[in-house]
Amino acid sequence: MEQVLPLHHTDWLLWLSLGVFSLLLAARLYNPIRFKAFCILPFHANRSELEGSFRPVVGRGLFDVSLGLSSFAILGLAVFLILHPYHHELPVLGEWRMYLRLIMILLLFFVFKNFMGLLVGWVFNKTDFIASAQNVSFAYRAWLGVVLFPVCIAMVYGGEAYQVLYYLLLIVLCGGYYFSVQFFTIRIWRIDAFLYYKIFYLCALEITPLIFLVSWLQSLYR
Q: Which domain holds residue 107?
């Protein structure tokens, strides 16, 4: 008799998992020492150097690009799973179109936020400082992707463990974003500018967009 897989096991999640794993493996093989350091980024002795050197753009090397691409895929998957809580039974995870919409929403969110940050930096002649601070966000987004990936895989293929792992995913995601904001704020605080400018920047371009994003996602998929 042909074995029927549980409803939450879908082909698109398998291919996505293999693709992300390939990107992480490529980064690991390309620069194993740096990859190991990145896995403990918030607690590494050379944290500041790792943060500042990370830039996931074409021309920066396979390591940065691979981690940058995989982080978006993993963050999208993490949000997708969070929007599918456990209600007395395993949720059906077959809406691959919803996942693609989430990727587009996250992409637009980060592109808009970074563009506005650079625009503000250009107005006040602080573009280099803002770009350096944004590299910190890129680095912690990549680190968060590495940490979240095994949790997401365990949720998808872990059966009844989904309910417990769901809360673990929330904790890791919130904790990772906290590290990102914390160390980004440290870089912003070093800029030679009035205190209220820094506070306004953080409120207008970090806290408010995040609140808007969470509210938007809740309204879309409630």
A: 11-220
| Ramachandran region, residue 61 (left: φ > 0; alpha: ψ -120 to 50; beta: rest) | left
Q: Please report whether residue 190 resides in a domain.
A: yes
Q: Kindly state whether residue 160 falls inside one of the protein's structural domains.
A: yes
Give per-residue pLDDT as tens, 1-49: 444 444 445 688 999 999 999 999 999 999 899 899 888 888 887 888 8
Structural domains counted in the chain: 1
Place of tokens 């095994």: 150
Encode pLDDT of 39-94 as tens digits: 888 888 788 888 777 877 665 678 888 998 999 999 999 999 998 887 767 777 77
> Is residue 1 a part of any domain in this protein?
no
Residue 2: inside a domain, yes or no? no
pLDDT digits (tens, 9 = 90+) for 91-136: 777 788 889 999 998 898 888 888 888 888 888 788 888 888 888 8
3-state secondary structure string across the chain? CCCCCCCCCCHHHHHHHHHHHHHHHHHHHHCHHHHHHHHCHHHCCCHHHHHHHCCCCCCCCHHHHHHHHHHHHHHHHHHHHHCCCCCCCCCCCCCHHHHHHHHHHHHHHHHHHHHHHHHHHHHCCCHHHHHHHHHHHHHHHHHHHHHHHHHHHHHHHCHHHHHHHHHHHHHHHHHHHHHHHHHHHHHHHCCCCCHHHHHHHHHHHHHHHHHHHHHHHHHHCC
pLDDT of residue 29: 92
